[in-house]
Design brief:
Largest sheet: none
Number of domains: 1
Oligomer: single chain
Number of helices: 13
CATH topology: MetI-like fold
Distance between the termini: 34 Å
Strand content: under 5%
Number of strands: 0
Structural class: mainly alpha
CATH class: Mainly Alpha
């Protein structure tokens, strides 16, 4: 009964990973030149690749800029719709709607928001007497603009997990804290939030992985520009493989991405997970 799953897992996960790792030690194959073993040359070239270093920096900044805000906003939304809110069913739907939209559709919507001439944000700024910005054309604002869009897209998805966790909390603990005279903030800080730590860990792990996997929006919004200010590692891998057809170097970049994800996962499950589960 495990065979179908194992075949799919090996075919589409383990074999490609091993093949990519092997390809990273060879030169790129062309019509006129067969591939040759080059050892660690591709990895050495990474250290001299300014675009790779820039995309690596952007990817970590993108992750740092999205993950904490996604956790905080999704938790805040879950607390809001879990309370005695009028029309909370509609509010839940509104919060969750961005999640079901394809990232390409979301990117097109936000492309209109960020447009320099007719964009919604610049229209609002002009209404209050401020000058508009070229949000996606300025290297100082482009990455932040993409981070804001990503938070809007993902917060509603993780809100569902927090909402389910809130509804499963033992109510007697919360009631006991209130009877003892604890304020709402103390109830949240000392009772609710500690009990939500397993859910927070789950959201944290998935949000970090998503921050390294997202690439669809770059095709619509910036294509990594301007001057690679919004280029992320996964998009650079795609560009190297399918625009420049340098599959060997793309394999090397992919191995680096896999190593980063493995290290992050190891740190998450070895250091953080042990501190959040109550026995």
């Amino acid at each position: 009964m495990l065979l179908p799953s194992m075949v799919l897992l090996v075919t589409f996960t383990h074999y490609p990973a091993i093949a990519t790792f092997i390809d990273s030690f060879f030169s790129n194959k062309t019509i006129f030149k067969p591939r040759t073993f080059v050892g660690f040359d591709n990895y050495v070239n990474l250290l001299n690749d300014e675009i790779f270093l820039k995309t690596l920096e952007n990817t970590f900044l993108f992750s740092i800029g999205t993950v904490p805000f996604v956790i905080v906003i999704s938790l805040a939304m879950a607390l809001l719709v879990n309370g005695n809110l009028f029309g909370k069913g509609l509010v839940r739907l509104v919060y969750f709607t961005p999640t079901i939209l394809p990232m390409v559709a979301v990117a097109n919507v936000w492309l209109f928001f960020y447009s320099p001439e007719i964009g919604l944000f610049n229209k609002i700024l002009n209404y209050f007497g401020f000058e508009g910005y070229n949000w996606l054309g300025n290297s100082s604002t482009v990455l932040s603009s993409i981070i804001v869009m990503t938070i809007w897209k993902e917060a509603g998805f993780f809100m569902i997990f927090y909402l389910a966790a809130l509804q499963s909390l033992p109510k007697e603990l919360i009631e006991a804290a209130k009877i003892e005279g604890a304020s709402k903030w103390m109830v949240f800080k000392k009772v609710i939030f500690p009990l939500l730590m397993p859910t927070t860990f789950f959201v944290f792990v998935n949000a970090v992985l998503n921050s390294f996997k997202l690439v669809d929006h770059l095709f619509i919004l910036t294509k990594g520009g301007p001057d690679n200010a919004s280029n992320l590692l996964l998009y650079y891998i795609y560009e190297t493989a399918f625009s420049f057809f340098d599959y060997a170097y793309a394999s090397t970049l992919t191995v680096v991405l896999l190593i980063i994800l493995v290290l992050i996962s190891f740190l998450q499950f070895s250091l953080i997970e042990k501190k959040i589960h109550y026995r």
